[in-house]
Amino acid sequence: DAGITQSPRHKVTETGTPVTLRCHQTENHRYMYWYRQDPGHGLRLIHYSYGVKDTDKGEVSDGYSVSRSKTEDFLLTLESATSSQTSVYFCAISGGLAGGTYNEQFFGPGTRLTVL
Amino acid sequence: KQEVTQIPAALSVPEGENLVLNCSFTDSAIYNLQWFRQDPGKGLTSLLLIQSSQREQTSGRLNASLDKSSGRSTLYIAASQPGDSATYLCAVEGATSGTYKYIFGTGTRLKVLA
After folding, report:
1. What's the gap in Å between the CA of A103 and the closest CA on chain B?
2. Of A40, A103, A108, the CB nearest to B93
3. Which one, of A113, A82, A110, A100, lies nearest residue A4 by Cα?
4. Is B111 on the interface with A (CB under 8 A)?
5. Under an 8 A CB cutoff, do A31 and B51 touch?
6. Where are the beta strands (DSSP E) in chain A?
7. Which of A44, A87, A97, B54 is the most buried (most CB within 10 A)?
8. B13 touching A, CB under 8 A?
């Protein structure tokens, strides 16, 4: 939609392995977010970034780390995956003038992660 | 803590009906409220964003209103179509969550019957 891609789109991994998900944007938006979506919980914020190398925790950040070395890329790492991290992960962006107001959020297509 | 509620969780209507989806929030100190649509297995698509100074926004058959004092927003869909079937979510950005951080409701799953 707003020039946001996520990779991989699907991943199956085993408990205890590290996993990195990538979000790439071509919109030059300042803010980037990682959410997880689970039945009964809706969308919950994991981490977000307000600029290159500037990140902060969301409400469900335990077990996750992030990095943003370039404006266009935001990485989410599960240091040691657990079954409770099985979820659909969405990247989002905001803070750009294209497509609407500055605060409008746009979402990527999602990554379905299964931890066995 | 800001809480965002969407009731009902699911709704079925016949094609052509006008309908209203509800979004309630507990802290009225909001900056923006955004409505999204999510199709099964897909990401969220932005529908409308209402700034705190606005009372409503319109896009085609959609009209979203905001009443901060009562902690409520409604999304009105005119002349519903089967293609409107999806889950609709609202998200609030405000003083409680912080600027550029959003709290989401759990959504209303809409089915429009042909």
Report:
1. 7
2. A103
3. A110
4. no
5. no
6. 4-7, 10-13, 19-25, 31-38, 42-51, 54-57, 64-70, 73-78, 87-94, 106-107, 111-115
7. A87
8. no
